[in-house]
Structure formats: structure tokens, C-alpha cells
Amino acid sequence: MVFARAKLAVEGTTKAMPETPPNRIPLAQIVNPRSIAVIGASDDAGKFGGRVIHYLIRHGFPGMLLPINPVRATIRGLPAWPSVAAAPGPIDVAVLAVPAAALLREVEACAAAGVGACVVITGKLADAGEAGAALESEVTAVARAAGMRLVGPNCLGLFNVTDAAMLSSSLALEVERVKPGGIGMVSQSGALMGALVSLGHRHGAGFSRCVSVGNQADLELCDFLEFLIEDPATRVITLYVEGLKEPARFAPLLRRARTAGKPVLCVKAGRSEAGAQAARSHTASLAGSHAAFAALCRDAGAVLLDDPAVMVLAADVLDRLGGLPRAGMGVAVVASSGGSTVTTTDMLAGFGLRTATMSDATRAEMARWMPPSHVHLPLDTGSFHDNTSEEALRGCLRAFMADPDIGAVLVPMTTQPAMAKRAAMLPPLAREGDRPLLYVMMAGEVGDAARDAMRAADFPWFDHVAQALAVLRALEAEAAGRDRATLAPPARPAGLALAEGLPSGALTEAEAKRLAAGYGIPVTRESFAATEAEAAAAAEAIGFPVVLKGVSRAVVHKSDLGLVKLGLGDTGAVRAAHAALRAAPLPLDGVLVQEMACGEAELILGARHEPGLGAFVLVGTGGVLVEVLRDVQLAPAPLRPADARAMLRRLALWPVLEGVRGRPALDVEAVIDALVRLSWLATDLGERLVEMDLNPILLRAAGEGCIAVDARATLR
Ligand code: ADP
Ligand code: MG
């Protein structure tokens, strides 16, 4: 018994709680059950239980179907059973769409009858107040004690399209057939999942398994994510996340998916909540939990999106056409009118994409079909020489599909003669190459014949240029994330020393700088002075000019209160500044005398610990206006130097760091080094770190380094 428990714990199928019995069936069998009992089954498809059995039959469930109904002998022509106990076993899965008041009794009956897992559609539990939450815990405890798993409650069930086990009451199943394909989905909203599967259906997308996890009382999003990673039918994974039950599992699973060659696309609810909380530091207000989640996804090579529709359409392109050959390639727009050519190209830049540069070979091919003035991208097919347009289109597209800088072809089609015929030419041409072609039918109903042609060819299509561009941007992110899983782990720099004896709570500037200096981050030379005489002596020792700052643990932004006196050139100025600080209307512990540093740019470096997600670092345009400019980038710690460089390159400030308008290139290497060191400090402090800011760090010209002139930290 001891051995069996230890084995279970190793396999991760259960937490090593002594009383937990082994699971009755593995997760794969819940998704693909041999037998399903529908509790509350009815002939009335207007009722939840009626709809579930209706859909199971309509979509051709091949296993044993057991309608449970205390008063009916048959339901939909199948023998019905008065209870799960009376039905022939073994029952892999029971679907429960009963009222909340009956739920506990039914779950107990399932547990007693040896049911493997319950899919609980019943809502109004933890999602509806304290009494519901108590009932949910009770139901969960009954299931756990029996080794019976739960999906939900408050979910819409699951679609196993691959095996025709459509175990759901979702109206997305009001179609003849859901097309099998490679898109897997886990969603915390059943209704959104239904809408997305239905949207995908309209566009010809194919699905493998879609699971609505509801309140995640037992099985949760990460369990099904893990399942989809291992699932041979799933090629692309889509996730709708509201909150993670065990956040620490998430990033490692994203990495595993990438290692398995499966792109993960994700929409996370709650972006707007970020930064809402009152914050003690800049880092806290700029790096809320949504920003941390986004950074985690990027780091693990997953694609985070805002728009669930774009998630499904992008997943479909990845599934049916494949991704971009690599990140950073350009786009070839092929349009049939001047208007669509120009507007599509204008929109391209707004999505962070660029028009491709053609190779000489591609140019030569284009020159065969059009006047020299038109041999460029975007291609306007209206400029082809007369009567050669089909051949010309073929020639150009084949050349594009082979061009080393063209990552994707975008074809926005406006109204024109023979739209459907033109559209039908595209799929076979696109399939000759190894890069996606995105077809947009910009017209309304008159474009339906062209859409049908695409459907018939099993080829994706879009209704709006903006949607196709959003998908291209997602594909770019996917390509950029593809090789993240293969990178070597970050290496720890030598000589890092954690400052000792620091208090918990808010640190003073001097204490926070001691912490930074221990990790090799350059900080100002400075000393604390309790009196005017001490301040004058400290200034002499440091060398003029100096800076004086009032020191108080209670103050967050010193300059707001006039507590920063810059550029003091002599002892007289120091004494005057000291007097002015002492006149401030709040008690000071003393003053800090520090060297006056100079630099060409002010950056902020920050770190924080996000409960459940770990340590993060931030870099951005610094100084007193950080919250106004919000030009920051976040990444999970620790960092590789290449990660730090990539963060800097994403800043709006980046061109300034490279040197613009005759200004010198700045010491980017020094910031990278400081950021990497800060990321190790954050990693080593772990949960002890609440947050830390180095703002600003003054950055000098290349080779001259950087220096933190202010620091702030809060420790637990
Ligand atoms: P606050 O608490 O208001 O952030 P800081 O110590 O950051 O106070 O000082 C405000 C500004 O003064 C900084 O953004 C920086 O521009 C400038 N500053 C502060 N200390 C120094 C210094 N030692 N050398 C040069 N400039 C400094
Ligand atoms: Mg500051």
C-alpha cells in the first residue's frame, strides 16, 4: 500500500494525501469514455439532460449510452434505467445536469455505483455565493473519497470530436457534424467555447477535444492542458483562462507543449484589472498580474491574445496551413484593386508587421507579368498585362512562396468578376509552398460563392483584413516562441552576495542600494548624515557636485515633497540644502549625501514577486514620468543576457539607446548586465521580495557604464 501511494505521487495523478484512493479511470478515458450515463435524461431537447443525450446520439457516440430516468422505460429509443445503481456497469462517465438541490444525492449515487467520473453541468455553486461554495466542497469531497473525478461544476461538458463523444449541452452542437481536426481547447467559459467552436465551424476549422472546465472543483485547466500535450489528435492548443488553480504548473506545461511541437494560443481575462491596486512602487503599478502572466507566456513560447476569435482563427491556420517558416519575415500583399492594396498595406504597420523585401529571382519573375513600374510589393493584380492574369498570378505566387523574406502571403479580395474561380486557384498554389496564404473575402453576401470555394478546398478564409492581420501577428509571435523551449537555462553570474541584516517592510534608499550593490549593480557613492556638519564633511569626502536627499521610511516619492536637492557645488550649497530639507514639514531620519551622477538617458529597472507565478523583472523608460510613459517590458526571472537585450529592443526608447540624431550609442551592455543581476537578486529573494525599483538608472555612452541613483524596495 505504501508503495502504491508513493508510485501515484510520482506519477502526479494525485497529491500524496494518505486517504486519497487511486483514481478510478485515467483522464484520457474521461475524454473518451466507453460508456456514458446521462442523469436526468429526457426526450425533451429543450431540457439540459434531454439536449445532452440528443447531441450524443446525433453526433454518433459509438459507446454504450445509458439514459437515467426514474419514470421512463425508454428515452430516444434507448432503454432507460431508474438509477445509476440499476444501470449495467462499468460506467466511465456520468453527465449531471440536475438542479443544485439534487446534486449531492446524485453524486453520492454515482460514487456508490463505481462511476469513473462525473461531468457536472449544474451551475449556481461556488460561482453563486457561500452556500453554493459549501455544496461544491461537499460534492468534491464525496468524489475524492471515492477516487471518482469531476469535471465542472458549472461547465458545459466536453466535445471529443475525434471520437464522436460529444458530451455537452452546448448549442454549438446544433450542427450536423463538427469537423474533426487538430485544434484542442480548454476553456473556463463553456459559452465562449461554444461560440468559438461554432465560429471555427463556419470557417471550416477542425477540432480534436474541447473541454469546458467550469469551476474546476477537481480537474482543472492544467490537467486538460497536460492531456492535450500528450494527445496525438491535437496539433494546436487553445486556452481561455480566467484564473489558474495551481499557477506554478502553467509555465512548465507551456514549455512542454513547445517541446512537443504544439503551439499554445491563449486568451486571459482581466487585462484591465492590471495596475488598479494602489502601489508603493513604480514596478507594482506597471507590472500587475496580467502583465506578469503575459510575460510568462512569452517566455514559455506561448502566444497571448486579446481576442478569442483571433485565437481560434490563428489556431486553424496553424493546424491546416502551418506557421511562418521563422520569425521576423515580411508579408506579401496580393490585392486585386488599388484601394485594397493601399489600405491593407497601411494597416500592416499598425499590426507591427512589414512588407517583405523581394529577392532578385522574385523580381525577375514579377517582371515577366507586369510593367517595370509595378514590380514591387504590394502586388496589385490589376496591373497585369492583358489576358495573362491567371498565369501571371500563378507565376507570382509561386515566386513568393519561394522567396526567403516572404513569410506569408495575404490576399484581400474585393468584388471583381469570377471571384469564386480566382479564389479556387489559391489553395493548390498555397499548398505547393511551406508558408501560409491568408485569404480575405472583403465583400458581403456576393462573396459567398468564393467562401464556398474555400470551404470546398478545405482552406481557411477571413471576412476582415484586420482579423487576418491579427492572425498574422499571432503567427509571428508563434514563430518567435517556437525555439524558446530549446534554449539553455540562464546562467548565474559570479560574485553575487545577498546583503544581510535588512529589515522587513519598506527599505530606505541606502538599504535598497546595499541590496543592489551586493549583486554587482553599480550605485552612487553616498553616506548618511545626521547633522549639517556631517553632511558637509560627507560632501567633501565624496567630491562636488553632490546631491542631498531627505531620508524617511514613510516617503515613497521624495521629489514630490521637495526632498531631492541636486547639483550642490560647494559646502555652502550643501549647508543651505540641508537647512531647507530640515525645514520640510515631516520628520526626517537624516539626509543622504551622494555623488551627482550624469547620464544620457534615465531607465527604470524593477523586480517583483507575483504570488504563484514567481519573480519578474522590468525595464523601461525611467525617471519621474514612468507611470505616464508606461514604456516598460516585463519578463520572468532569472534572465539570459539575450532575454534582457530582447526586452530593451521592444522599448519605445530603443532607438535612443542605439543613438539617434547625432547622439551617442549608449551602454546597452551595462544595462543588460544590471538587469540580469537584478533578475538573480529577485530569484534569490523569492517570496521575501515584494517589489524593488531602481529608478532611475542613468545610462552613459557605450563603454562608460550605468549607475543607479535611486532605489526602493519592500521585503516580506
Ligand atoms: P524620487 O524618490 O522622487 O524618485 P530620486 O532619488 O529618484 O527621487 O530623485 C529624483 C530625480 O533626481 C531622479 O529621477 C534623477 O533625475 C535625479 N537624481 C536623483 N539622484 C541623483 C544623483 N545622485 N545624480 C544625478 N541625478 C539624480
Ligand atoms: Mg526615483
Automatic annotation (TrEMBL):
Question: What InterPro entries is this protein classified in?
Answer: Acyl-CoA_Synth/Transferase, ATP-grasp, ATP_grasp_subdomain_1, CoA-bd, NAD(P)-bd_dom_sf, Succ_CoA_lig_flav_dom, Succinyl-CoA_synth-like
Protein's UniProt keywords contain Nucleotide-binding: yes
What are the GO BP annotations of this UniProt entry?
A: tricarboxylic acid cycle
Q: Which SMART domains match?
A: CoA_binding
Look up the domain of life of the source: Bacteria
- Outline the extent of the ATP-grasp domain: 513-549
What are the alphabetically sorted keywords of the record?
A: ATP-binding, Ligase, Nucleotide-binding, Tricarboxylic acid cycle
Question: What PANTHER family does this protein map onto?
Answer: 3-HYDROXYPROPIONATE--COA LIGASE [ADP-FORMING] (PTHR43334:SF1), ACETATE--COA LIGASE [ADP-FORMING] (PTHR43334)
Protein name, as recorded: CoA-binding protein
